Protein: Deazaflavin-dependent oxidoreductase (Nitroreductase family)
Organism: Nocardia ignorata
Amino acid sequence: MVWNPLPRVARVFGAQAWVMRGASVVLPAERLLRRFSGGRWGVLDLAGLPSIEVTVVGRKSGVPRTTSLLCVPDGDGFFLVGSNWGKPEHPAWSANLRAARTASVRFNGSAAFPVSVTEITGVERKRVWDQVVEFWPGYEMEYELAGGREFRIFRLDRII
């Protein structure tokens, strides 16, 4: 296995408030890179971080919507956190996932596969929050930037 310093560097930068203001640059770069790579790579992949491309039907429009997100791998599943770059409002994709039972994802350049969607709430939420913050400490800073908004957390599990 080759040592890659980029994930550690990304975690340091990801805990800086000024990085959250960079969404207007990162998001277009993400879309462009995904388009040119046929959906195989995004900005997070280049930084050595796990990213997932989630497609879920829009709760109002009924149109499939695709979003690239940082994910926290957990066994055969993934956690997604609706931090929305530290903004005070929830991201649109989280409302669509909340309304869905299933979605489709691509991970590590794989072909798309179906997943079940579960929102993490109640007692389990604290344990999962601690786990995702350990993986990506920037979530705590984003929580502060968002004025203490409780981020939605979802678990996605492959449907076999």
In short: The chain has two domains: 1-48, 50-158.
